[in-house]
Amino acid sequence: MMREEEEKVRERQIKAQKLLVDVESSNKMALAMKEKKRLEEKEMDDQIIRYNQEKAMRELRAQQEEQRIRDEKEKELQKMRDAQEKSSNRQEEIDAARAKRAFEESEKQARLREQLKEEKRQRLLADLDVAR
């Protein structure tokens, strides 16, 4: 009987040892799977971060390009305004010169009429003096 009990104890020890090996093996596999999952999640997080960074850079470049286009349009618009103002100023100068010439011409005509009137008056006075 002792031998049977020893044999049972020995079998239990072997089963326990085998169970322990199986548990350790399962634990190692579980830890390996857990580490693999952690690395996959980290890689996924890194991909998300890279994607977000690239997206932010694309958006920044797009905003910069839009600003450059707005600045270029504003510069062109200001150039057109300046040209229009210059043209307007030039037209005002031309109009002012025409008005000055017209005024001077009317003054000249008025002086000429006055001179002719005075000459006519002088002739009449001279004719009256001769007639007396």
Question: In words, what does this structure look like?
Answer:
With 132 residues, this protein is mainly alpha-helical. It has one helix at 2-131. The longest helix has 130 residues, at 2-131. The chain is rod-shaped and about 190 Å long. The mean pLDDT is 93. Helix content is 98%, strand content 0%.
List keywords for this structure.
132 residues; mainly alpha; rod-shaped
Task: Please summarize what this structure is.
This protein is mostly helical. The protein is built from one helix and no strands.
Task: Identify the overall geometry.
Answer: rod-shaped
As residue ranges, the low-confidence spans are none
> How are helices and strands ordered from N to C?
H
The number of helical elements comes to 1
Structural class: mainly alpha
- Measure the end-to-end span: 192 Å
Helix content: over 70%
Please tell me the overall pLDDT. 93
The value of Rg in angstroms is 56 Å
Strand tally is 0
Oligomer: single chain
Topology summary:
Blueprint: H1 2-131
